[in-house]
Structure formats: structure tokens, C-alpha cells
Amino acid sequence: MRKAISHLKKQQPDFVVADFLYGYGNNYAGVNVSNLDVFLHSLQKYAPEAKVIVMAEKEERKHIAKLENLFTLYAVLQYPVLEKEMSEQLA
What we know:
Order of helices and strands: HEHEHEH
Strand order of the largest sheet: 1-2-3
Distance between the termini: 27 Å
Strand content: 15-25%
Shape: globular
Number of helices: 4
Number of strands: 3
Largest sheet: 3 strands, parallel
């Protein structure tokens, strides 16, 4: 994550594509919703115009609303993600 944030400071992306993993229990110190919170906070600061595409397993989708309460997501795709689906979001 530190390397990703470091790169973010140097070059602001148009799109960010990431896996969503919900923070069950204390996996993320009980403060964060998922594995993406810290990065998305940095994204708001360094590249607020970047569009975030989140990919998740079917079982995890129900938790994405919690992330959406904190951050703007451009798209949410469910695994298995087809090339056509991703291409449509990146167009």
C-alpha cells in the first residue's frame, strides 16, 4: 500500500482498479471498512478526479455499500469480470 500511495503522489491516474476485501472483525484495526480505505483517502487528496472501479466476489458485494458511504465509486464489478465489462467501464 505504501508503494501504491507513493506512486499516486508522483503520477495521478485517470482510473484505479482494485480488489475489494471487506474487513471482517479486526482485520483492519476495526476502523476501516476494507483493504481500500487508506488508499482511497490518499486518492481523494492526490487524485480526486480518478475514477475508482472496484472488483469483488459475490459474497463481498453486500459490504460495498459501506465503502460507498465513505468514497465515490465509479463502478463495481463482480467476479468473474469479463473483458467486455471492464472495457465498457474504461471507455
